[in-house]
Design goal:
This protein is an alpha/beta fold. Helices cover 38% and strands 16% of the residues.
Length: 270
């Protein structure tokens, strides 16, 4: 298995330093974000500058995270999607992560299909993939990967869409199936705090994966690999205690070592 890093790990870290940290940790793939205030893409850094920084560091930009909410098609979304897709293509990113509306408002299946059909040519024209990421929160308009698969199937657009399997959202959504062959990217984070009920978990609880993880990350990763997933496992912790680390290298390395060892170890009862 191979790891990647999402810039949310260290949002205060300049992009060049973030890319260098990824290489120091043996990661050649990264995700950048458009929701970090004062950082590329938000601060208007030219995409060519981002491309040059990535190439100089020897990293590939997996995706820009994220187009939101992708499942409510409108003229505004069309414009935003085109601008973000242009930026992604120009900076060398391979994909856009696409997140559904997460505000306690239902979005019907037909509207999701229509949005996917409308977004597909924007992505195709720029040689990008759309990574559809169901959010397991109870308030999310798309909680499970099975919902995403049904919509992509109806849109007839597997040439341009893949799933994001997020270990946190998979656990919250209560979905049994993993769909490894439909998956283009895996987001990894862990929850160790035993005092918070699953229904009350938020992004703020998402830290690094350790031996006390409650999300069954190891079991999820094993199932994905056994089912044929061969892509990156991208660390995406939102917890303030991780983001506040001046240099998270040691903590990330320890977590990666733990995951590698746990995934390689014989399964209990085997």
């Amino acid at each position: 298995m191979r790891f990647a890093l999402n810039h949310i790990i260290a949002p205060q870290m300049p992009l060049g330093e973030f890319f260098a940290m990824a290489r120091d940790l043996g990661c050649s793939e990264v995700e950048i974000r458009n929701d970090l205030r004062g950082a590329p893409v938000d601060d208007g850094t030219p995409p060519a500058t981002v491309r040059h920084a990535a190439e100089s560091a020897g990293v590939v930009i997996l995706a820009i995270n994220a187009l939101y909410p992708f499942n409510q098609w409108s003229a505004d979304l069309s414009d935003r999607a085109a601008r973000l897709a242009d930026y992604a293509a120009d900076c060398g990113a391979k994909a856009l992560v696409m997140c559904p509306l997460n505000e306690g408002i239902s979005v019907g299946h037909s509207r999701v299909v229509a949005a996917l059909e409308s977004l597909a040519p924007i992505l195709r024209e720029r040689g990008l993939l759309g990574m559809v990421e169901p959010l397991g929160f109870a308030r999310s308009s798309m909680r499970t990967k099975s919902e995403a698969i049904a919509a992509i199937e109806e849109a007839g657009a597997w040439d341009v869409y893949r799933l994001v399997h997020d270990t946190f959202h998979h656990h919250l959504g209560g979905e049994a199936e993993c769909y490894p062959r439909r998956t283009g990217l895996v987001h990894v984070s862990g929850v160790s705090d035993p005092s918070v009920a699953v229904a009350d978990l938020l992004d703020a609880h998402r830290g690094l994966v350790d031996a006390d993880d409650r999300l069954n990350n190891i079991a999820q990763i094993r199932r994905l690999i056994a089912g044929g997933y061969a892509g990156p496992f991208s660390y995406e912790p939102f917890a303030a205690e991780v983001q506040a680390l001046a240099d998270p290298r040691a903590a990330l390395r320890a977590s990666m070592d733990h995951v590698r060892a746990a995934v390689a170890a014989p399964e209990p009862g085997a």
